[in-house]
């Protein structure tokens, strides 16, 4: 896997995003608790665990040894929190006394697959769509 300058920048920015999100989960869990679906057991513990996971993922992205695992972990994390984002959007849950409209929710929901790809690419798990195309060698 190439470790190009754009990938390094993307990795650093993504680590900053997850670091900020992790701190937000730990320091102010109320907004995250508000959008957590009712079927999630022990939501306080889940929000705490997600904050820790985000911080560990951010740190992992910045270390060569754990980068690949962090990329996979953060991609899975982004997939797993999608139900909370859907719950927030579909049920019009107010956070901090404010109900956000579809001008916020639609891009947020559409952006989630990009977050999954971003984690995988920044973590060096995938090359797509920037990788070299390998030619099949005729035998």
Please tell me about this protein's structure.
- The chain has helices at 5-27, 30-35, 43-61, 67-80, 82-90, 102-122.
- With 139 residues, it is mainly α.
- α1 (5-27) crosses α6 and α3 packs antiparallel against α4.
- The longest helix has 23 residues, at 5-27.
- The radius of gyration is 17 Å and the shape is globular.
- Tally of helical segments: 6
Q: What is the β-strand count?
A: 0
Morphology call: globular
Quote the average pLDDT: 90
Question: What attributes characterize this protein structure?
Answer:
139 residues; 6 helices; 66% helix
In short:
Helix content is 66%, strand content 0%. With 139 residues, the chain is mainly alpha-helical. Helix 1 packs antiparallel against helix 3 (43-61), helix 3 (43-61) packs antiparallel against helix 4 and helix 4 runs antiparallel to helix 6 (102-122).
